[in-house]
Amino acid sequence: MPYNAEVSRANPSCFLFLIDQSGSMSDPFGGRESNRSKADGVADAINRLLQNLVIKCAKEEGVRDYYHVGVLGYGAHMGPAFTGALAGKELVPVSEIGNMPARIEERTKKVDDGAGGLVDQTIRFPIWFDPVANGGTPMCQALDRAHSILQAWLAQHPGCFPPIVINITDGEATDGNPSAAADAIRKLSSQDGGVLLFNLHLSSQRASPIEFPDNEDGLPDQFAQLLFRLSSPLPAYMRNIAQQEEYPVSESTRGFAFNANMVAVIRFLDIGTRPSDLR
Amino acid sequence: MRVSAQAFWVVKAGNSDSEYEDAYCPKKSPRDQDKTCFRFAVADGATETSFSGIWAKQLVRSFCNDRLDVTSIGGGLRDLQQRWSMNVRRRPLPWYAEEKVRIGAFAALLGVALHDDSCLEDPHEWRAIGLGDSCLVQMRGEEVLVRFPLDNSASFTNRPHLLSSNPAYNRQVIEHLCSIKGTWDHGDVFYLMTDALACWFMREVEEGRRPWSILRDVGPYGEIKPFREWVGELRADRAIRNDDVTLLRVVIE
After folding, report:
1. Which candidate, A24, A36, A53, places its Cα nearest to that of A128?
2. pLDDT in the model for residue B172
3. Which tens digits make up the pLDDT trace of B122-180?
4. Backbone phi, then psi, for A103, in 5-degree steps?
5. What whole-number distance in Å separates Cα of residue B250 and Cα of residue B253?
6. Residues 6 or more apart from B164 whose CB is under 8 A from it?
7. What is the ipTM of this complex?
8. Cβ-contact A274, B164 below 8 angstroms
9. Domain boundaries of chain B, sorted by first residue
10. Are A114 and B166 a contacting pair at CB < 8 A?
11. Does the distance separating the beta carbons of A121 and B47 come in below 8 Å?
12. pLDDT tier, A162 (very low <50, low <70, confident <90, very high otherwise)
């Protein structure tokens, strides 16, 4: 299947994020000596992904609703994880995400001044999610819920660019083996291709970050290997862009990352001309 | 030398006319025919950046007012970038629009200067610059003399090198600036096209067809309606990418 449907306001696509909010996420992230927890890593990852997705769709007049977006949390509770005005909603247009962060923080960033130097610039950083670590890890339940949300979406949008699911977790499901539920999601499809399921593994293991591997041999533990196997291969058009960004990719490359972030996936989305020098 | 120019444009299907992000200059066929140089330009603002339509307009006007040098556009850019920045920061912006302004706007630019100047070594010289995937075609009768800066349909991607309103992104991009010169003859036709139409043109040529005959005859008096209907048909047949489309047809009589 081609994965070449145009993403537009008239033919939007869908993003569903699953975030692990279980008790094990209070463990250190990326090594015992780390002062950050995996829950900090999840909050950072989802906030960055949402921020990048909103910016991708932003134009001068506002945010164009190229995507509808949902975030399911799973831990002591499983269900829609937005707070505030978006609380309880399964899928919302991306413009609502952009206009309704929980708060906006100011951060300082060093940026290129165009003359070979760096200058400090204050940027506004929206926050939708704070770290949460509580209860078990009902990943299978979350995948099942994602399946039913996407099934309904696809019935209403049969010609859409296939929805993308990004599951952010330490991989330690407590409600069984998630393979069958993940498989069911990957078997959903629009006329343009199968739903893409990508996994971002945040681990206490002290190991180098890994992005978009094409085999499981170098992965550090059985959780990473399982999540790799649950992940969809990158479609050809994404592989092309990944290659242009100098990721070493093959036909077996999967949408999986270990202790990294998945912001690159947002860059891989095609909504029109993107300057080649923009990273 | 008598030069006439006709511009045709149509916005991406699904967008409103106010969302048009290509640009062209001049807006009307030159009235003053006594000049020694006629300048024409098209630009294409990138979808993924904001305020890129404004940036594209600034670039074509600047080129046509001879504020961007034909062989090196480095010099005139800084002023344009400052003007763009002042223009888009006039009112408070939401966080995402502010971030887009911080990144900057990007656009492809193609400009051509046609000389009729006995002081030049070749009085009938033309020079062009191109950065990105907007293209120039020079036709002499049924012969395609020049395709610039891209010359085949496979060269078009969704990630071209583009000129930015943010100086930080232009240091490497300037290396991709192309320039060319040639000579014109009476009866020559120059087509300046943004990428979707240029890619269609190249593919038609590659497949042995004569796309120039359509471009030469569409809207013979500059009427835009037949052009828009024709692009609509190409889109319906998936023969052209759904994007803003701009054509500037320049005829040397």
Report:
1. A53
2. 75
3. 889 999 999 999 999 999 999 999 999 999 999 998 788 899 999 888 877 778 889 99
4. -160, 170
5. 10
6. A275, A277, B104, B105, B106, B170, B173
7. 0.89
8. no
9. 3-252
10. yes
11. no
12. very high
Instruction: Please state the φ and ψ torsions of residue B30, each to the nearest 5 degrees.
Output: -60, 130
Q: Round to whole Å and give the CA distance between A160 and A6.
A: 8
| Distance in angstroms (rounded) separating the CA atoms of residues A110 and A122 | 9
Residues in contact with A86: Cβ distance below 8 Å, sequence separation at least 6, in sequence order? A92, A96, A97, A100
In order of their start, the domains of chain A are 13-268 (3.40.50.410)
Q: CATH second-level architecture of B3-252?
A: 4-Layer Sandwich (3.60)
Q: Taking Cα atoms as reference points, which of A263, A266, A173 lies closest to residue A223?
A: A173
> Of the candidates A249, A85, A165, A98, which has an alpha carbon nearest to the alpha carbon of residue B95?
A98
CB–CB contact A241 B159 (8 Å): yes
How many interchain CB pairs under 8 A, A with B? Answer: 101
Name the residue with tokens 């943004």: B194
The torsion angles phi and psi of A27, rounded to 5 degrees, stand at -70, 160
- The residue of chain A with its CA nearest to that of B103 is A278
Find, in chain B, the residue whose alpha carbon is nearest to that of A104.
Answer: B95
